[in-house]
């Protein structure tokens, strides 16, 4: 079929004759079909004919636009976009216009495609007459507005989604309505195909995407026309053969000639259509199926799938299938998905399977591998395609191919699991032999019995025995009838085998019971297992009815069978545990309405026997939950079940008291059998105490006595202590008295020092739970009456809890002894890690809910980098929650953790450590990670970051130099770590922090250039890098690029000026910390008023240099500042201090200039002359610029990350300063303007 040469952008077809059909179309005049236009490009008319046609055209259309009632002009694009008119009527109007004046109609169609591409330009009549298509496309490309990457096909919203559908529908209807004559006129289709081919080769994505979609839809419509022609030709040929086979006397020669003529016309039309399809396929598809844009490739593959399915005789061959096979390797999941959906349409028709054999053998491996595709949607469709291939032939897929799909029934992604379950069901359960037709519908010999056995065999062979619920869920939709055949399952478990049948093994019976339980749970809960569902959905009325019917059926069947099953398997713990979960899904009313009370009595007797026989925790908890489910006061069976429960507990409690008394009297000569009896009895009671209220048996006293004896003697068996702690914990939660709570917590604290790791872990877990239950949260939501129960841990208990975490959680894998010598077992390692994560999460919960002091989290946070893989998510979430509670205290905790690591490093490496060492770099990297957790909103974390810097500076200068006077302080290198947080400071806060840093510096420190002083230099540079330009603009009275600052200049002229370097927000964190020693909380910006007045005092020179910060070496010195930082009288002191500050700066700068000869030429001065700039040079300043260089680039920094983090957008005062900070900067300006 495809035999034409490659098409150029402009092309025409040579036709020998036009097609004349005796069709019944009502859109085209049959007489007009005899008048063919002249051949050649666009079939141009004579000028006079064009003018005449234009006049006729103008009566119905204006500028190629529709006229509706003569009031509104709409283009084809606007009509399709609105979607209010029927597509067929729009096409009919265009055909009428084409008949009257085809040039103008075709021009409108061309502009339709141009506008659908999002181009604002339009093709004029002059361009249409005199320009080639390539020239028109080039002109439209020049007029295309590419400022926005959106165009109609990519725009979101219901309007544009509807437009895409209308656009495709318009093309299909246009070809369908023109299929009898217009598409054969050598003009319309030639022009449209030539235009679309040229646009599809454009560099403009919008043109390429839109034209490709139009061309592919045009091709699809032509394929439909070709298919109809082929059918008509076959019918005509049959009619001709039938007429010709008649005898000469009955043969109608006129009819034979008419049929021959019709067949000739149909053949000519088919040749025309084939030429058009060749042109589109070779001109558009062959190039665009590998386009750089995934959407375009997907369109091509989707449409070729339609062609092969619609006209399989012409397109379903390897020449076209190869494109789909190649594209299955596409990098984009969207394209791969289209390949699979296209193939599904082909494989679904079994009549086409023989034509797909070669393709299947060639690309089968690729399809099988796509079942593991990283895109879930692609994997689902690949499995569905494999299911269709499996249905077409059982021999195509090998056993290895099927096994690669089988294991996906355990996938966490439910659509993949459901598709795999269907594949499994079709492969293993859908085949039925003729010998199975006579088998009974229920019972051990029914057909489902063999299928259930097959399910059990598959479940065991998969070696994922803990995931039976996932297997059942995967097969639920396709195999629900099989999985709901509980009678057959019970028959396989209880009935005797018939002759020749192989009985189920113990392992197979266990698997069958688990599958049976999972099927019951799925039928009653109607939602997928944990980890596979996306949330609860609303059930339909039909689903609710099915659920009720299943629950009734389950109760009727298992109420009778469950006691028998428990009798048979009463000694098997695993089987009994699963069987005892069935009553949770019973409709208990049926016990009464169905007269099944005797079966209830049998069930209660069996549960009692199970409790007496077993000590396994899972079995006992299952018995406890069964009693809890049956003891429902809403049903009449409650009294019967409650009596049975009370009798059982009476026996167990009496036995425990008797055994405990004898056991405690034995003293140091404790018998192992007696210890086992006490432990097992206590274990049974604890299991029931978890779900039932046992306060009337007064178990707290006996258990507390047992625990106290264990502490005194120190030789209590481990299991007894563990169960006694757990049982006492349940008692305490129900007693609701403060004294037992306090005594029990003290008891658990003492057991934290036990020699047994299991006992310590149990005591720690119970302590964390008890502290959470009886914390201050208990009085929330109007529960003030419970305030006497609040128990807050003292410092000793907090310390013990923290030490337990450090000793038992933050350990290396090889140091964990909880696996008892099985460290090499990967499963044991995972289990141990899971246990440690639970312990850490329990403690972090205490931090988050403010049960323990937040600063205890420093020991947790400092482990963030070292144990990131094991606990990184828990620690990060803890930091996030604590920051939400108290930003300042969280920041202080973070800096405390860094200080602890720094001190540990000094202890290990000494004071002369190398700052390039792995220990120091690790602390610095941890600081960088901490800095990233503060986010990008600096205003929210402003006060916290400032407090963090304050604590860091104080720590750096806390210890004197080990080298004596003149040497760097011991912790000076900590400033290098602190510089990681400098980027989080606001500009005005950087200056405040810098002034606070200068408070601890001496004049000699500012002149030092040795390597040991590099942390100080680096930290000062990090503070000055983002604040220098702000300082210049404030002092010189010029504010660049801030409209808000200009407004605030006028507003602040009448206000009192604040001294330099002080801000109402940035300074409050310092004075509040000095005045109040309690845990700081977030406070709003202080008001500029106060009711407290103090006499102004003269400041010493050193105080003037320091500014507003007070510093005293006297430990008894008490700061005068209170929680309200800025008093009215204090401003007078600050103004005087600022005068002395400016004078001292001037003296220092002169001294530096005099000593400049002592410095190297390439070094920067430590103290810059902040008054050296002028208004003229200020115009060239940029953010982060140093005063000495005046370059536009950021200044060189010894810390690489400082440069990368100083982004202008984050530090532009016009964008981040609030009104208070803007007013503050203006106050600085007016203050200096007034004094200088």
From TrEMBL:
Entry's Gene Ontology BP terms: cell division; chromosome segregation; sister chromatid cohesion
Keyword check for Cell membrane: no
Stretches with biased composition (Basic residues): 36-45
Subcellular location: Nucleus; Chromosome; Chromosome, Centromere
Disordered: annotated span: 1-68, 1039-1068, 1186-1205
GO molecular-function term, one example from the UniProt record: chromatin binding
InterPro entries xref list: ARM-type_fold, Cohesin_Scc3/SA, HEAT_SCC3-SA, SCD, STAG
SUPFAM superfamilies recorded: ARM repeat
A Pfam family matched in the record: STAG
Stretches assigned to coiled coil: 249-279
Keyword entries, A-Z: Cell cycle, Cell division, Chromosome, Chromosome partition, Coiled coil, Nucleus
Major localisation: nucleus
Domain SCD: 285-370
Family: Belongs to the SCC3 family.
PANTHER family documented for this protein: COHESIN SUBUNIT SA-2, STROMAL ANTIGEN
Subunit description: Part of the cohesin complex which is composed of a heterodimer between a SMC1 protein (SMC1A or SMC1B) and SMC3, which are attached via their hinge domain, and RAD21 which link them at their heads, and one STAG protein.
Described function: Component of cohesin complex, a complex required for the cohesion of sister chromatids after DNA replication. The cohesin complex apparently forms a large proteinaceous ring within which sister chromatids can be trapped. At anaphase, the complex is cleaved and dissociates from chromatin, allowing sister chromatids to segregate.
Protein's name in the database: Cohesin subunit SA
Organism of origin: Electrophorus electricus
Taxonomic classification: Eukaryota, Metazoa, Chordata, Craniata, Vertebrata
Gene name of the encoded protein: stag2a
């Amino acid at each position: 079929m495809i035999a034409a040469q490659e098409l150029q952008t402009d092309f025409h077809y040579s036709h020998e004759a036009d097609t004349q059909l005796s069709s019944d179309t009502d859109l085209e005049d049959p007489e007009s079909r005899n008048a063919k236009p002249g051949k050649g490009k666009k079939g141009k008319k004579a000028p006079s004919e064009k003018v005449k046609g234009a006049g006729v055209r103008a009566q119905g259309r204006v500028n190629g636009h529709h006229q509706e009632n003569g009031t509104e002009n709409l283009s084809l694009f606007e009509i399709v976009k609105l979607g209010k008119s029927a597509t067929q009527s729009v096409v009919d109007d265009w055909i009428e216009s084409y008949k009257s004046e085809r040039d103008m109609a075709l021009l409108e169609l061309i502009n339709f495609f141009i506008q659908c591409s999002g181009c604002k330009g339009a093709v004029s009549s002059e361009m249409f007459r005199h320009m080639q298509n390539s020239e028109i496309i080039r002109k439209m490309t020049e007029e295309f507005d590419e400022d926005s990457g959106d165009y109609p096909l990519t725009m979101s919203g219901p309007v544009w989604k509807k437009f895409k559908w209308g656009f495709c529908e318009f093309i299909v209807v246009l070809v369908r309505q023109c299929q009898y004559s217009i598409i054969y006129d050598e003009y319309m289709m030639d022009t449209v195909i030539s235009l679309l081919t040229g646009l599809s080769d454009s560099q403009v994505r919008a043109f390429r995407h839109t034209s490709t979609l139009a061309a592919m839809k045009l091709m699809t419509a032509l394929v439909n026309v070709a298919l109809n022609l082929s059918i008509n030709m076959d019918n005509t040929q049959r009619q001709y053969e039938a007429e010709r086979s008649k005898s000469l006397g009955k043969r109608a020669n006129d009819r034979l000639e008419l049929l021959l003529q019709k067949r000739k016309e149909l053949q000519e039309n088919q040749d025309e259509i084939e030429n058009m399809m060749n042109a589109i396929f070779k001109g558009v598809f062959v190039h665009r199926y590998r386009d750089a844009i995934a959407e375009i490739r997907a369109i091509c593959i989707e449409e070729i799938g339609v062609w092969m399915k619609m006209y399989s005789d012409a397109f379903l061959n390897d020449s076209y299938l190869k494109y789909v096979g190649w594209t299955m390797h596409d990098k984009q999941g969207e394209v791969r998905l289209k390949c699979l959906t296209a193939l599904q349409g082909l494989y679904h028709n079994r009549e086409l399977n023989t034509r797909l054999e070669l393709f299947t053998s060639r690309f089968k491996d690729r399809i099988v591998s796509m079942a593991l595709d990283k895109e879930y949607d692609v994997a689902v469709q690949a499995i569905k395609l494999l299911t269709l291939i499996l249905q077409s032939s059982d021999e195509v897929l090998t056993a290895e191919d099927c096994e690669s799909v089988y294991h996906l029934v355990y996938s966490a992604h439910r659509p993949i699991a459901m598709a795999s379950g269907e594949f499994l069901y079709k492969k293993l359960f859908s085949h039925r032999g003729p010998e199975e037709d006579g088998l009974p519908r229920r019972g051990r010999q029914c057909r489902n019995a063999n299928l259930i056995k097959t399910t059990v065999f598959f479940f065991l062979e998969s070696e994922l025995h803990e995931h039976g619920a996932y297997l059942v869920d995967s097969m639920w939709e396709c195999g629900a009838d099989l999985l709901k055949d509980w009678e057959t399952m019970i028959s396989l478990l209880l009935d005797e085998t018939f002759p020749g049948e192989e009985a189920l093994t113990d392992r197979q019976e266990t698997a069958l019971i688990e599958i049976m339980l999972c099927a019951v749970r799925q039928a009653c809960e109607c939602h997928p297992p944990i980890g596979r569902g996306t949330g609860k959905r609303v059930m339909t009325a039909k689903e609710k009815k099915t659920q009720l019917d299943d629950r009734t059926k389950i109760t009727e069947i298992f109420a009778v069978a469950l006691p028998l099953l428990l009798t048979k398997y009463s000694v098997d713990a695993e089987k009994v545990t699963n069987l005892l979960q069935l009553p949770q899904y019973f409709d208990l009313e049926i016990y009464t309405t169905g007269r099944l009370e005797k079966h209830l009595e049998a069930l209660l007797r069996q549960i009692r026997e199970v409790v007496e026989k077993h000590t396994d925790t899972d079995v006992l908890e299952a018995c406890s939950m069964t009693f809890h489910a049956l003891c429902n006061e809403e049903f009449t069976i409650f009294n019967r079940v409650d009596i049975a429960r009370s009798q059982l507990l009476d026996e167990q409690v009496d036995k425990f008291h008797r055994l405990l008394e004898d056991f405690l009297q034995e003293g140091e000569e404790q018998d192992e059998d007696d210890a086992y009896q006490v432990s097992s009895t206590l274990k049974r009671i604890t299991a029931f105490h978890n779900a039932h209220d046992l306060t009337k048996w007064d178990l707290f006293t006996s258990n507390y006595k047992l625990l106290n004896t264990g502490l005194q003697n120190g030789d209590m068996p481990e299991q007894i202590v563990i169960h006694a702690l757990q049982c006492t914990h349940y008692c305490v939660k129900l007693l609701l008295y403060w004294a037992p709570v306090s005594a029990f917590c003290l008891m658990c604290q003492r057991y934290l020092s036990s020699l047994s790791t299991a006992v310590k872990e149990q005591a720690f877990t119970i302590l964390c739970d008890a502290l959470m239950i009886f914390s201050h949260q208990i009085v929330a939501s109007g529960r003030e009456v419970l305030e006497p129960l609040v128990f807050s841990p003292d410092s000793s208990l907090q310390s013990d809890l923290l030490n337990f975490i450090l000793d038992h959680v933050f350990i290396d894998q090889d140091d964990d002894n909880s696996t008892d010598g099985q460290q090499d077992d990967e499963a044991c390692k995972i289990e141990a890690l899971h246990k440690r994560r639970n312990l850490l999460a329990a403690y972090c919960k205490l931090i988050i809910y403010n049960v323990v002091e937040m600063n205890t989290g420093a020991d947790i946070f400092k482990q963030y980098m070292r144990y990131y893989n094991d606990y990184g998510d828990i620690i990060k979430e803890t930091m996030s929650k604590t920051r939400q509670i108290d930003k300042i205290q969280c920041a202080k905790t973070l800096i405390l953790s860094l200080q602890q690591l720094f001190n540990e490093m000094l202890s290990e490496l000494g004071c002369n450590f190398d700052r390039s060492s792995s220990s120091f770099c690790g602390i610095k990297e941890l600081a960088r990670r901490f800095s990233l957790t503060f986010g990008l909103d600096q205003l929210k974390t402003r006060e916290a970051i400032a407090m963090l810097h304050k604590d860091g500076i104080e720590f750096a200068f806390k210890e004197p130099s080990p080298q004596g006077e003149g040497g760097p302080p011991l912790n000076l290198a900590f400033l290098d770590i602190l510089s990681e947080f400098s980027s989080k400071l606001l500009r005005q806060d950087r200056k405040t922090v810098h002034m606070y840093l200068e408070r601890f510096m001496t004049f000699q420190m500012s002149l030092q250039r040795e390597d040991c002083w590099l942390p100080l230099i680096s930290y000062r540079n990090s503070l000055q890098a983002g604040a220098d330009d702000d300082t210049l603009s404030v002092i010189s009275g010029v504010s660049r690029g801030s409209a808000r600052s200009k407004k605030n200049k006028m507003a602040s002229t009448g206000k009192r000026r604040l001294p330099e370097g002080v801000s109402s927000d940035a300074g409050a964190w310092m004075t509040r910390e000095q005045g109040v020693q309690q845990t700081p909380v977030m406070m709003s910006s202080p008001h500029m008023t106060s009711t407290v007045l103090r006499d102004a005092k003269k400041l010493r020179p050193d105080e003037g240099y320091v500014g507003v910060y007070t510093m005293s070496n006297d430990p008894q010195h008490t700061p005068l500042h209170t929680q309200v930082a800025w008093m009215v009288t204090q401003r007078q002191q600050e103004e005087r201090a600022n005068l002395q500050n400016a004078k001292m700066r001037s003296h220092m700068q002169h001294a530096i200039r005099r000593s400049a000869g002592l410095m190297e030429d390439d070094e920067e001065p430590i103290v810059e002359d902040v008054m050296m700039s002028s208004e003229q040079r200020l115009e060239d300043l940029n953010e982060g610029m140093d005063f000495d260089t005046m370059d536009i680039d950021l200044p060189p920094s010894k810390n690489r990350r400082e440069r990368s983090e100083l982004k202008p957008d984050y530090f532009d005062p016009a964008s981040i300063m609030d009104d208070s900070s803007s007013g503050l900067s203006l106050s600085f300006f007016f203050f200096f303007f007034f004094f200088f």
